[in-house]
Amino acid sequence: MTPRTALNPISSAAQSICSAGTADTIVLDLIVLRRRGLLRHARVLVLTPLHWFRLSLAAWRALFQLLYDPQRWEKTEHGLAKSSRLAGTLDAAPTATRCARGLWRRLRRSDR
Q1: Exposed e or buried b for every residue in 78-92, given b needs 16+ CB within 10 A?
Q2: SS3 per-residue string spanning 45-93
Q3: How many folded domains does the chain comprise?
Q4: 85 lies in which domain range?
Q5: Based on the domain organization, do 51 and 83 belong to the same domain?
Q6: 20, 14 contact by CB (below 8 A)
Q7: Percent of the chain clearing pLDDT 90 (strictly above)
């Protein structure tokens, strides 16, 4: 028996489990969408495997960055949307930080 044929049952079982898990997730999502009256959005469920693949890539990338460059921090820029309350400010991050600090001070004062 060659190693390739020895691993074939394991490979088939893994593929079956992954396929069943994906199908279960999509079926449950369809049930939820139908109950909420949002079945018209069901077409995006086809992208579920792609979404999982991209999440996996992001997790691996984060792990490698943590191991090889732990001081690097890729920050998400907030306040860039036109509907954001921070839109139009020159530098959104310090504004958000000031808002958070002010909220924290108010919360600490109310605890006294």
Answers
A1: eeeeeeeeeeeeeeb
A2: HHHHHHHHHHHHHHHHHHHHHHHHCCCCCCCCCCCCCCCCCCCCCCCHH
A3: 2
A4: 76-112
A5: no
A6: no
A7: 42
Answer yes or no: do 43 and 98 share one domain: no
* 17 shares a domain with 36: yes
Q: What is the pLDDT of residues 4-34, one digit of tens each?
A: 655 677 788 888 998 999 999 999 999 999 9
Q: What is the CA radius of gyration of the chain?
A: 23
Q: Are 26 and 45 in contact (CB under 8 A)?
A: yes
The end-to-end CA distance of the chain, in Å, is: 75
Verify that 20 and 55 share a domain, yes or no.
yes
**Whether residues 89 and 54 fall in one domain:** no
